[in-house]
Hints:
Layout: E1 4-5, E2 7-10, H1 28-41, E3 45-48, E4 50-51, E5 58-59, H2 62-73, E6 80-83, E7 89-92, E8 108-109, H3 117-122, E9 126-130, E10 134-135, E11 141-143, H4 147-160, E12 163-168, H5 171-182, E13 190-195, H6 205-212, E14 220-225, H7 230-239, E15 243-246, E16 253-255, E17 258-259, H8 262-275, E18 279-280, H9 283-290
Parallel strand pairs: 1-18, 2-3, 2-15, 3-6, 6-9, 9-12, 12-13, 13-14, 14-15
Antiparallel strand pairs: 4-5, 7-8, 7-11, 10-11, 16-17
Helix pairs in contact: 1-2, 1-8, 7-8
Amino acid sequence: MMSEVFITCAVTGSGSNVERSHHVPVTPEQIADSAIEAARSGAAVVHIHVRDPKTRRASRDPALYREVVQRIRKSDVNPVINLTTGLGGDLVLGGPDAPLPPDPSGTDMAPALERLVHVEELRPEICTIDCGSMNFGAKEYVMINTYPTLRKMAARLQELDVRPELEVFDTGHLWLVRDLIEEGLITKPLIQLCMGIRYGAPADPATLMAMVNQIPPGAVYSAFSIGRMQLPYVAMAALAGANVRVGLEDNLYLSRGRLATNAELVERSVQILESIGVRVMRPDEVREKLALRAHV
Length: 296
């Protein structure tokens, strides 16, 4: 069991959750404000996606990231900023009878370095790398992250001195993590175990511990589950030696029928952790623990 952990708040995500809760932030101002409120409530790290304010769908527009990051950096809080690089690996096939060409309305496949444009400009302390490909639910959507693409992204992040957080959705993704480490492309592994996503690793404790037992030596890792298991996973993560992630990207509810804000999810997480004797770390403590490099 961890005696102290840090909390990451995943503020908005890229899915359709915006259609199911009015608390999910959409505009850069809303996303920044929600991240700031989460930081005030105890989140040491804020994980940022952006959305097109007109369509409310996920976006890779660097200008939207720029506004969010600048607003957070100018605020009276100083959380560790963690930007996604997940967009640009989205493939939606045409269907079982005619898979090709892909469906252009949902497909967004970008070159490896194009997925890092906002990271190169804004130089966050952390950005994510999704460590593998997988079916995402029962539709035709496949998340595509080939090993050559991830190698190129990891190598560029080394040059930028931005710490990658390795998003692991199933056991095979840990194999890919180990290969990146063996190649010297990852030197201080920071891993996020993403549980409960359909056709990835299920959220049961046995699967979590099987994945924890494959974590490379010396790695710092977090764990979360989506949906109703998000808050139980706050305690489960700490018991499994992991740090914690909550937020509206992964779960919309504080309790049955009660829609949450990001700040409320963080507040509840702090309560859960403190009730089992776990101290919540502050941003500067996380920076020291992870040896992060500030670029601004």
